[in-house]
């Protein structure tokens, strides 16, 4: 049976562009649903009769289980057919999202968000593995997938509040719950099945990664990169409304500019980095663009907001996509799941600490300039680290052979 499945997988036509598009669709739905409660925290607070801490727990429930699932999900994507893993995750994500949309019980909503986090954690390393094993260049693959993730941010932050304003929050959340089913159709149509690998292979890959100092350094760099990213993703909307006086609708449109630039910059920078073998240097360029954005924000002028959003959108997209390209490049293609899962599990330290770090800065200083200053310094540190770690660290070619471990 295993031989027959392997033969069918080998004979199926492989269309790399469609596979990357399907993987982008997975992360589009995942990211839209991950952010789905953010615009509606006040509505949930009123619906469930809880305080802001209780409403905020709906965010924490997702991120906690999402982070805990990363490494097991990466191992699963390497151990079993990643197509099937993605399909299971999408069905679970859609079902849990529908429960969230329809429930009037706070404990049920909290459990639904935790379940969504497990499903979302299952999807991220799986989608990344599908993309990087389908194409010759890791930068193009991760750039294309990150473009889908950026569009998911656009849907969650900008389009869903607009839909809720003309219908209801429940209707908007029900529409969001359909997105994983659309992505499921794309996976079924575009992604060929892959034969499973031996369990010992994925465990051996994990052991090698834990001994690989360059990989661990890249994962640590990922914490800094994501801290920079969360400064913009997490605090730009609040800054635009409270410090610059933009309305909720105006803030939505401005954040749409941020995410659209992000979605365009990621595939372009990834392809360029593949062509010129400069993934680390391009990541450094993205970090410098982020530092420039924070510098532009320091005067607190409305006229400079759009320029900062464009710089931050391009820089954020470049940094995240090329970080994953470098991380995936530390292993052969069939082991990409565990590399991305482990790297993201470490990187999620940023999501856990960013709110506390930047919130404490704002509380203690009373000004967003403190956030932009710290984030700018972190961006400069990540640029320096990217140059150092990207030097002589070429990603493996389509043959799937692992890169050199030194240099």
Describe the secondary structure blueprint for this structure.
Layout: H1 2-11, H2 16-34, H3 41-48, H4 52-79, H5 82-102, H6 106-132, H7 138-166, H8 169-190, H9 199-211, H10 213-243, H11 248-276, H12 279-297, H13 305-328, H14 336-347, H15 349-365, H16 369-390
Helix pairs in contact: 2-6, 2-7, 2-8, 3-4, 4-5, 4-6, 4-14, 5-6, 5-8, 6-7, 6-14, 7-8, 7-11, 7-13, 10-11, 10-13, 10-14, 10-15, 10-16, 11-12, 11-13, 12-13, 12-16
List keywords for this structure.
407 residues; mainly alpha; 81% helix; disordered N terminus
Q: Could you explain how this protein is built, in words?
A:
This protein is an all-alpha fold and 407 residues long. It is 81% helix and 0% strand. The protein is built from 16 helices and no strands. It has helices spanning 2-11, 16-34, 41-48, 52-79, 82-102, 106-132, 138-166, 169-190, 199-211, 213-243, 248-276, 279-297, 305-328, 336-347, 349-365, 369-390. Helix 7 crosses helix 13. The longest helix has 31 residues, at 213-243. Mean pLDDT is 80; it is low at 1-12 and 394-407.
Mean pLDDT: 80
Largest sheet: none
Q: Work out the radius of gyration.
A: 20 Å
Molecular shape: globular
What is the helix fraction of residues, given as a range?
over 70%
User: What's the end-to-end separation, in Å?
Assistant: 43 Å
- Structural class assignment: mainly alpha
Elements, N to C (H/E)? HHHHHHHHHHHHHHHH
Q: Number of DSSP strands?
A: 0
How many DSSP helices?
Answer: 16
Which percent band covers the strand fraction?
under 5%
Unreliable spans are: 1-12, 394-407
């Amino acid at each position: 049976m295993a031989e027959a499945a392997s033969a069918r997988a080998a004979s199926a036509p492989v269309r790399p562009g469609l596979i990357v598009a399907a993987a982008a669709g997975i992360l589009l739905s995942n990211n839209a649903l991950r952010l789905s409660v953010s615009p509606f925290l006040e509505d949930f607070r009123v619906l469930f009769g809880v305080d802001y801490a209780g409403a905020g727990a709906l965010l924490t429930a997702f991120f906690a289980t999402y982070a805990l699932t990363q490494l097991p999900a990466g191992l699963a994507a390497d151990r079993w057919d990643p197509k099937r893993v993605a399909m299971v995750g999408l069905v679970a994500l859609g079902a849990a999202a529908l429960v969230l949309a329809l429930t009037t019980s706070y404990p049920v909503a909290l459990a639904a968000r935790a379940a969504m986090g497990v499903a979302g954690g299952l999807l991220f390393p799986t989608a990344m593995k599908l993309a990087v094993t389908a194409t010759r260049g890791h930068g193009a693959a991760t750039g294309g997938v990150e473009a889908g993730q950026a569009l998911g941010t656009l849907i969650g932050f900008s389009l869903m509040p607009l839909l809720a304003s003309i219908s209801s929050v429940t209707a908007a959340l029900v529409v969001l719950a359909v997105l994983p089913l659309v992505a499921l159709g794309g996976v079924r149509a575009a992604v060929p099945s892959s034969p499973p690998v031996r369990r010992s292979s994925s465990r051996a890959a994990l052991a090698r990664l834990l001994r690989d100092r360059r990989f661990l350094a890249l994962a640590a760099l990922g914490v800094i990169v994501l801290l920079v990213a969360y400064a913009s993703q997490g605090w730009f909307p609040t800054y635009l409304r409270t410090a610059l006086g933009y309305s909720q609708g105006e803030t939505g449109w401005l954040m749409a500019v941020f995410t659209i630039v992000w979605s365009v910059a990621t595939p372009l920078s990834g392809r360029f980095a593949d062509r010129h073998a400069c993934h680390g240097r391009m990541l450094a360029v993205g970090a410098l663009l982020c530092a420039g954005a924070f510098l532009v924000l320091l005067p607190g002028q409305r006229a400079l907001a759009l320029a900062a959003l464009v710089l931050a959108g391009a820089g954020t997209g470049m940094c995240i996509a090329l970080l994953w390209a470098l991380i995936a490049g530390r292993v052969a293609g069939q082991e990409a799941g565990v590399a991305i899962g482990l790297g993201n599990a470490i990187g999620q330290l940023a999501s856990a600490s960013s709110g506390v770090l930047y919130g404490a800065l704002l509380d203690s200083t009373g000004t967003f300039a403190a956030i932009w200053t710290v984030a700018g310094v972190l961006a400069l540190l990540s640029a320096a680290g990217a140059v150092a770690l990207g030097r002589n660290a070429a990603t493996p070619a389509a043959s799937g052979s692992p890169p050199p471990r030194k240099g």
